[in-house]
Write a structure and sequence with these properties.
The chain has 458 residues and is an alpha+beta fold. The protein has helices at 9-13, 28-32, 52-65, 115-123, 139-144, 152-155, 183-189, 224-234, 277-288, 331-341, 389-406, 432-445; strands at 19-21, 45-48, 69-72, 88-91, 98-101, 106-110, 127-128, 162-168, 174-177, 198-205, 207-208, 211-220, 242-250, 265-273, 295-296, 299-302, 320-326, 351-356, 378-384. It contains twelve helices and 19 strands.
């Protein structure tokens, strides 16, 4: 549908401050590119908004000619969007303002800001936001989808600490949303995704933290059986002040991989503990006692360093991943995990991970919005790089196998919004009552289905 005769790109260019990019333009491929390069986005037009008015103008323009609008920042979760044929892709990366109010312990974040933009400014005041494992992820999409990271067991979902939002609705009007203004929409946007509106900015809560005991322990993958079961046992007494993951890793022999990791197969426990260094060392002593690690990077680090310890890619890359919520993490779950990714496994996954949940994620106070409470004990996440069609097919099969093998423990709520890259449905990541309520909010605020979201109401 590219080249749609209804689209007068010149007229739209005359109204917006940002860029309007059409398929015939020089920078078309760059403008349509998502962070996950598996997503081959082919919209009718791309608008790179510079401000809120650009968003409103684009929404009114699209509604007038009957084209859907797909709001997007970086596009980490773009694989669920499809090719966007006939839609206007509304990119918000140009709207990246961040300001900190240290007295209120809040950050005001525009739609296109990455977490790194918040992390650095907040650290100047001894504060930290509830960012994810990587500082390069966009704040808005992450928080709207719930958001779990290194402080989740202590403070809960990032979405639960959204204080207010500025949005543009399907009629092209700006609205202020909080617990007293548009309360149903406020509930939905705190973890249910941004489907009914375009979020242009939000106020989020910050927390006091200047440093943390964090890093990773890594061993050769041949020792994974002992490490995984010891980790499972260790979790029984882990306090809420520590959030951790265990990963079975297969690093490709590529030059962009750091030399100590390049081409190696390892089992890694990565964690962040908000207590003291003596307390951290005491906490991890049982893990260090399992055997001499190949690498041990655990130490006190400045709080901004938490956004880097996961070692996630710093540039756009193709990936086929998916996450599944596990209601329980048992000894039998650990055995199944080892079968799927341990030293004897033949797998296309470069990473097979279990993230420990619980703690404040289970809390109903304060009101957690659509994201919670979450009763699942863990999340299993797997990803690989589809370097060719055969590997892509193998990854698809491997994800099917992962679901089958983990089926005894998969929760009623099958995944989290920011980890589900397969279903594309809100009913795949929420219980029926929550999905029904989200559907009702979407129908109320976007009755004609103007906005395209990563996960749809079906």
């Amino acid at each position: 549908m590219n080249g749609d005769s209804r689209i007068d790109a010149a007229a739209l260019r005359a109204e917006v401050e940002g860029a309007v990019v059409a398929p015939e333009d020089r920078f078309w491929d760059r403008a349509r590119q998502a962070w996950n390069l598996v997503a081959d986005q082919r919209p009718a037009l791309v608008v790179q908004a510079a401000n809120v008015e650009d968003v409103a103008v684009t929404v009114r323009f699209a509604a007038a000619i009957g084209l859907p609008v797909a709001p997007q920042c970086f596009g980490h979760g773009a694989v669920c969007l499809g090719d966007l044929d006939g839609a206007i892709l509304l990119r918000t990366t140009g709207m990246n303002e961040v300001s900190i109010d240290p007295d209120r312990r809040t950050a005001t974040v525009s739609a296109g800001a990455a977490w790194r933009g918040v992390i650095g400014l907040a650290a100047e005041h001894g504060l930290v936001g509830l960012h994810g494992m990587s500082g390069g992820v966009g704040v808005t999409g992450y928080a709207l989808g719930g958001g779990i990271g290194w402080l989740s067991r202590l403070h809960g979902f990032a979405s639960s600490h959204i204080k207010s939002l500025e949005v543009v609705t399907a009629d092209g009007q700006s609205r202020y949303v909080d617990a007293d203004n548009e309360p149903d929409l406020f509930w939905a946007l705190r973890g249910g995704g941004g489907g009914p509106v375009v979020v242009t900015s939000m106020d989020i809560g910050l927390f006091e933290l200047s440093e943390a005991f964090a890093g990773a322990l890594m061993w050769p993958i041949e020792t994974a059986g002992e490490i995984v079961h010891a980790y499972h046992e260790w979790l029984r007494t882990a306090p809420n002040e520590v959030t951790s993951t265990i990963r079975l890793l297969r690093f490709p022999p590529l030059p962009q991989i750091p030399e100590p990791l390049r081409g190696r197969e390892l089992v890694a426990i990565t964690l962040a503990f908000t207590g003291s260094e003596p307390g951290g060392n005491e906490l991890v002593a049982p893990l260090r006692a399992i055997g001499t690690p190949y690498m041990d990077t655990l130490a006190m680090i400045p709080a901004p360093g938490l956004g880097e310890i996961s070692g996630d890619p710093q540039e756009p890359t193709p990936a086929i991943g998916n996450g599944l919520l596990l209601e329980r993490f048992t000894t039998e779950t650990a055995d199944a995990y080892l079968e799927l990714g341990g030293p004897e496994a033949q797998t296309p996954f470069l990473q097979l991970e279990i993230r420990h949940l619980g703690g404040a994620l289970e809390s109903t106070v304060p009101d957690p919005g659509a994201a919670g409470p979450l009763t699942s004990q863990a999340l299993v996440f797997a990803t690989g790089v589809p370097i060719n069609r055969d590997v892509a097919a193998a990854l698809t099969d491997a994800h099917d196998g992962l679901r089958d093998r983990m089926s005894p423990w998969i929760a009623e709520r099958g995944s989290l919004l920011t980890f589900d890259e397969r279903s594309g449905s809100l009913r795949g990541v929420f219980t029926a009552p929550v999905a029904d309520r989200l559907a009702a909010v979407t129908r109320s605020y976007d009755p004609d289905g103007l906005f395209v979201a990563n996960h749809v109401v079906d």
